[in-house]
């Protein structure tokens, strides 16, 4: 993984090239204060200060060159990311001071997923000098968490099955000094019957697992984080078309988010009792696959009629949410690449947020806006619960009629969370369909930074955690 720690350094006046910035309508004022050589260069480069524009500027001596970057009206974490790709290796500082949240884009512009490249191109190291040395560690940790999500999601399913996902979780647990446990294969049948049912068709080396991590002082508020870990989704016997399977390596994106968030909690030593749960399965096809029309018994005790084997993520999440709720957490949050309906409604950039608690929803929405990691709340509309009715069982896993699919999926999960427990469900895409500065096409963290900012605000305070 990229060593982000070397890319941000405290500014102690060491030699560096300046990066000037022009935001919004400030171009004319900026240009008026520049020497003739700079004005000529800017004119030749057709730089007008628009967002995303970039130009190298001559100095009084050859080694005194600088750069200028056009920025959008409203600051974002990605303001500097586009400039990074155009800068040579070296040290830089902003002419107008602290880059703030834009350090995230600076760092992540250096990240590449090149595991499968025979001869990956080296990434020039551009070091940014920052006046606020106290913020460096947090920025580096956040960039590392985003990079972890990207790397896990980008890894093909052949190399990121339930066993490999468990290994990744164990590394995070070991790094944080957490307790780690796994229940796998047929041992799931008794306590986690729906996780077992969804994953049992896979080969023995890709057997289903319930991954569990605990960390922190038991006296501190308990925070449970659950992530959907469907390492590949064929759709099961209700098989997806080829086009629908093409991106299904990313169906463990919720688990990647949950794991990265747990890592942030431990690295920051947040004073909470952390409980991470990841149901890791492959929704495969074999003679042992669960079938449309089957009735499964859940860990909670509700019986579930299978209306569609391609609605498997909510099944494995239900057993994991039940386990999390048994410990009565002060807050329960889950991440899942759960429904195409959420993407139809909100597109790739906006995770759908469902919450049983208005204060929790408000905190997440506020954190998403503040961090440039926006969420959009959708309703847990009780009137649509009838779409999940079953004539055989307590509930059906697939809503009738094909309408409100993101809402009915969230309502299904709600059945497995106590009514008085603050719970948030993020239906995230975990994928970037097109390149943007600092955000290449591929796996991406969407909702992670919002969730982390919310946890920091609620539970932060600089208390040292012992465990």
TrEMBL record:
SUPFAM superfamilies: Macro domain-like (SSF52949), Zn-dependent exopeptidases (SSF53187). GO terms for molecular function: manganese ion binding; metalloaminopeptidase activity. GO terms for cellular component: cytoplasm. It comes from the Bacteria. Residues 308-315 form the Cytosol aminopeptidase domain. Keywords: Aminopeptidase, Hydrolase, Manganese, Protease. One of its GO terms (biological process) is proteolysis. Belongs to the peptidase M17 family. This is Leucyl aminopeptidase family protein.
